[in-house]
Amino acid sequence: MLEVRNLTKIYADGTRALTDVSFTVKPREFLIVIGLSGSGKSTLLRCINRLVEPTEGEVVVNGANTTTARPKELREIRRTIGMVFQQFNVVKRLNVVTNVLAGRLGYSDRWRSLTGFSRDDRIAAESALARVGMGELSRKRASELSGGQQQRVGIARALAQKPSLILADEPVASLDPVLAHTILNYLEELNQNEGITILCSLHYLDLVQRYATRVIGLREGRLVFEGTAEEIRAISDAQFRQIYGEDAERIGAATVSEE
Amino acid sequence: MSSGTKLVRGRVAVGLSAVVPGIGQISLGKLQRGLLVLAATFSMAGIYIWQIAEIGRRADGFWPTIARAVERRPGFVIFVAVALVSVWVLNIADTSRIAANMQSNGRGGRPILFVVMIATFFVIGWQVSEIDLGRAISELPDALPPLSRVLWPWRAAIDHDEERVSAFQEFAIVPRDLVGVPQIGIDVPIPETARRGDGEPYLGASPTVGVLSIQDPETYELVAGSRFIANGFGFESGKQLDLWWEDEVGNQFRLRKDGEFVAIIPDQSGSFEIELTMPYPNLTPDMRDGFVTHRLEARQVYLGAPKASEALTLSVSRMVETIIMGMMATIFGIILSVPVSFLAARNIMSGSALTMTIYYLTRTVLNIIRSIEPLIWALIAVVWIGLGPFAGVIALTVHSVAALGKLYSEAIEGIDRGPIEAIQATGANRIQTIIYAVLPQMISPFISFSIYRWDINVRMSTVIGLVGGGGIGFILVQYIRLLDYRSAGIAVWFIAITVALLDYVSSEIRNKLA
Asked: How far apart are CA B298 and CA B304, in angstroms?
């Protein structure tokens, strides 16, 4: 479903964000990426849909090579990949349903989208909103929503794309623990019932242990851990240090916060 | 450093402060405090000396000047002298306290020094700005009448047309040496319709031929002209009626009888009868020749229907002009500042050294233009274009471009990258990304700033009129110069109402957008 081969990213200022990262994601997996802040999780996710241009290596999504795709092909690949962000990234000035309709932009005709959306697009958006329990709020302005509601709009936007893969970049890092479970439950539900593959970066080890079907760990841009859900549940302190660095300690039972 | 050397250093500092206030504090490492004391004492002393020279001017020599200054403003001269000495003493105390506290690492100093300095500046300021509260009160009674006219000017807002009811009778004026003086003798012929009192008012006279009164050129004696009887019918009874004489070239003047202006109250049937003498001519005798026709007019004057006065209509039309000036300047400002704002946005221009140079250049130019008041731009524009609203529009446009350019560029800099990234990730193309992620973030500050600017421009265009830039300020300054305070008051009221309304509307809209 997704194949990442020898991915390297060096930013213009010389920062080495990723070094030779390779892994494969099978369909219907809920793959969680763990690692410290600055370990390259965000860069990795953005290289997959080329929001960040990889320096070396390639990414193949459903048989299509995104790294060599021309702009039009890239947009066609992107529309099958939903993305959910830590800061939700909803457009606050627009109302909820327009935010979700934006998920249909990749499908709509170049000029058609200037005047409005088709009936099918509207049906898709409304059903995506209903899916995350936001059907009643579709006319509200996004800026009036709470953080948890905004993230549900973010998921609905990704869902409106009818994606086969959702990239979730720290989707719950700005939310409290109860909301974090709500949001991840939506993703899990989509993963299990719709068969959407999820690639999600997370901070909290207990959430990782609860939701992941497989885990990869990044440290300073290198892949340092790869294991199943069972393995991460039985993770030792030594492996834990391997991911989070020598100074890291387990906070509480199984939570890791920044620093 | 040992406590011994600290002690020596402290004493040296106290000595330094005694010579030049502030230097001691500086020598103890209190640079800002020392500079403040230094600058304050020197400027206080400088202004004090200048003021004494001002107050004591016209006295010859050094001591007479001081003596005269003390005589004229004893309070100021003595208070500030005492205050300056206190500042000097407190400054030494301040230094010594700082020196003493150096050993215990305390902060030290005497805050009272700064209190005394502020008080001294206040007294000096009182003298320099010629504050005279007594005068403010004593001049108040003279100022109240014009001020009350400005505050409640509405009597000047209404005007009445004069409506006249009149009838006239023509007279043939003949040279005096030709016919002698015709006298009363014949009855006044009166048409039947006039006698019945229906129809138009009617004025009849007998005789209708005669000579004017003159002053004998040799004896300077007054020689009366022909006497005649005037009869009027069909006027309104009980309403004052004036008689006007009109000579052959159209000069009109009110007729007198026994030195008083003739004022007739018609009787119940609306008619009157009065015996009069033909008046003195307005023209010198040699300017007249032969037979001429003069007219007698009987006139009743009514106040017509009320109408808006010229001050009111002019104020309204100029107010509209002012609002439109502000609007045009805002529109021009928006059109010109949008491209400029991109050049002044750091996140757009951070690409290369060249674009950053353009960025800094644009910012600098905008700042310079913005720091020059629109009133100054208006003066320049009036020289360039001439008086009128166009000059005002140019002045406001120049300032608006600079102000809006800065505000817009900050709005561009404040755009959140996140939503742009999110829309790109859905497979949207460039145009779609701009429409769904960039514009929604831009539009609200953009509208908000534009309306705010319109508000400011209308407010400023009232001021710009004062220097000839058109709009309501232009007539306001004229009314004030003509001492027509009521009309000026009407203009002031319109300015106040418009500005308050616009302020309210613009803040409401901006709150809605926020």
From this structure: 19
Number of H helices, E strands in chain B: 20, 13
Which residues of chain A make contact with B430, given a CB cutoff of 8 A? none
Last residue of a domain, one of B268, B289, B308: B308
Q: What is the pLDDT of residues A195-249, one digit of tens each?
A: 999 999 987 788 888 899 999 999 889 998 888 888 887 777 777 777 776 655 5
User: Could you report the predicted ipTM of this complex, rounded to two decimals?
Assistant: 0.91
Best to test chain A binding among B423, B426, B447 (most A CBs inside 10 Å): B426
Quick check: is B74 in a domain?
yes
Cis check: omega of the bond before B207, within 30 degrees of 0: yes
Name the residue facing A114 among B421, B435, B440 (closest C-beta): B435
CB contact under 8 Å between B425 and A94, yes or no, is: no
- Give a yes or no: residue B141 inside a domain: no
Residue B140 is assigned to a structural domain of this protein: no
Cβ contact B422–A85 (<8 Å)? yes
Using an 8 Å CB-CB cutoff, list chain B residues near A104: 426
**Residue ranges in chain B modelled with pLDDT below 70:** 1-4, 103-107, 178-199, 283-289, 514
Q: Which of these three, B131, B147, B182, is where a domain ends?
A: B131
Q: Are B149 and B291 in contact (CB under 8 A)?
A: no
Report the DSSP pairing between strands B222-223 and B209-210.
unpaired
**Nearest by CB: B426 against A90, A98, A106:** A106
| Site from A93, A98, A108, A144 to mutate, B interface, most B CB atoms within 10 angstroms | A93
Q: Are residues B441 and B346 in the same domain?
A: yes
Give percent of chain B above pLDDT 70: 92
Contact call for A105 and B432, based on CB within 8 A = yes
Number of domains chain A is built from = 1
Asked if the Cβ–Cβ distance from B427 to A76 is below 8 Å, we say yes
Q: Across B371-431, where does the E strand assignment appear?
A: none
Q: What is the residue range of A17's domain?
A: 1-80+165-172+194-259
Q: Is A128 on the interface with B (CB under 8 A)?
A: no
Interface contact flag, A91 B443, Cβ < 8 Å = no
Number of domain units in chain B = 3
Pick the closest to residue B436 from A257, A246, A100 (CA basis): A100
* Cβ contact A89–B422 (<8 Å): yes
Q: Tokens 């959407």 identify what position?
A: A196
Would you say B179 and B173 are in contact if contact means Cβ atoms under 8 Å apart? no
| Containing structural domain, residue B105 | 3-131
- Partner B contacted by A163 (CB < 8 A): no
Rounded alpha-carbon distances, angstroms, from residue A97 to A130, A142, B307: 11, 9, 57
Q: Kindly report the nearest CA distance between residue B427 and chain A, in angstroms.
A: 4
Does A95 contact chain B (CB < 8 Å)? Answer: no
pLDDT at B121: 93
Instruction: State whether B437 and B361 are in the same domain.
Output: yes
pLDDT attached to residue B101: 82
pLDDT at A257: 42
Q: Is A64 on the interface with B (CB under 8 A)?
A: no
The length of chain B is 514
Please report whether residue B62 resides in a domain: yes
B20 and B99 inside one domain: yes
Question: Is residue A136 situated within a structural domain?
Answer: no
Q: Are both B300 and B343 inside the same structural domain?
A: no
Whether residues B190 and B207 fall in one domain: yes
Q: What is the CATH number of the domain that holds B397?
A: 1.10.3720.10
At A134 the three-state DSSP class reads coil
**CATH code for the domain in which residue A76 is found:** 3.40.50.300
pLDDT tens sequence across B229-280 = 888 888 888 888 999 999 888 888 888 888 888 888 888 888 888 888 888 8
